[in-house]
Amino acid sequence: MGSFRQAVKRVIYPAYEARLVRQLPSDRLPQHVGVMLDGNRRWAKAAGEDAAAGHRAGAANISPFLGWCEELGIEVVTLWLLSTDNLNRRAEELAPLLGIIEDVVTELAAERRWRINPVGALDLLPDATARTLKEAAAATRDVEGVLVNVAVGYGGRREIADAVRSLLQQHAKAGTSIEELATILDAEHIAEHLYTKGQPDPDLVIRTSGEQRLGGFLLWQSAHSEFYFCEAYWPDFRRVDFLRALRAYAVRNRRFGI
Asked: Which positions bind substrate (predicted)?
């Protein structure tokens, strides 16, 4: 019975996906998609595996996902792989996870299909991880393809604090007094110092695993984003799930806070 169901799915799902693609209006697709790749550990637990197996399964789903984005003309993708809070995990779990992140970032860079841009507090990361992220960015700097923000050691509050710190340092070097800065400071000044400076804010933020919270992801940039929460754990997130998220986004009436 199980093999029969799998055979039916192999026939039905491609046709269903093709219909979903036809239903997507090209002028209502997001330019920037942020993804919270959640559920790797719970996927592993359900499968009777250790956490590292879940993280490896999640890493294996990243390249296919970027291919789906490429296919649909999405220009910017932000992938949250590791938060600043995650850095407090037990060493026996954190070390393998960092190694998996280093491997997947190196593999993505080697494909030379996407431009890798690390976002996060790289100074909090082990030297080997930070070096891998910087090398991937350098190796793909001239690649014309989807811009992929790899959020590692990332936290929304930390990003805003870093942006304000950078802004103050810039004006201090220019000789601007605190009083003068206070009279001119606005949101755009801070946005110019975010990790994603110069990029469009995310139109759509997707979180997998059924959790319905941001957890600090792109706090500043997501003020006017649309959100989509998917029940599937990240390793099980399929193309059809992504197409459903895009369909839900396309029919929404975006009001941008108005």
From this structure: 39-43, 55, 83-85, 89, 207
215: phi then psi, degrees, rounded to nearest 5 = 65, 15
pLDDT tens-digit readout, 9-30: 666 778 888 888 888 998 999 9
Does residue 175 belong to any structural domain of this protein?
Answer: no
41 known member of a binding site:
yes
Q: Which of these, 142, 58, 139, 68, lies nearest to 100 by C-alpha position?
A: 58
Global pTM reads 0.93
Residue 5, in any domain of the structure: no
Asked if residue 220 belongs to a domain, the reply is yes
CATH code of residue 143? 3.40.1180.10
Q: Is 103 a catalytic residue?
A: no
Query: Does 131 show up as a binding residue in the annotation?
Result: no
- The answer as to whether 186 is a domain residue is no
Q: How many other CB atoms are there within 10 angstroms of residue 163's CB atom? A: 19
- Res. 180 pLDDT band, cuts 50 70 90: very high
Q: Report how many domains make up the chain.
A: 1
**Is 86 known to be catalytic?**
yes
Query: What residue spans of 83-203 are helical by DSSP H?
Result: 91-111, 127-139, 156-173, 178-184, 187-191
Report pLDDT digits (tens) over 189-234. 999 999 999 999 999 999 999 999 999 999 999 999 999 999 999 9
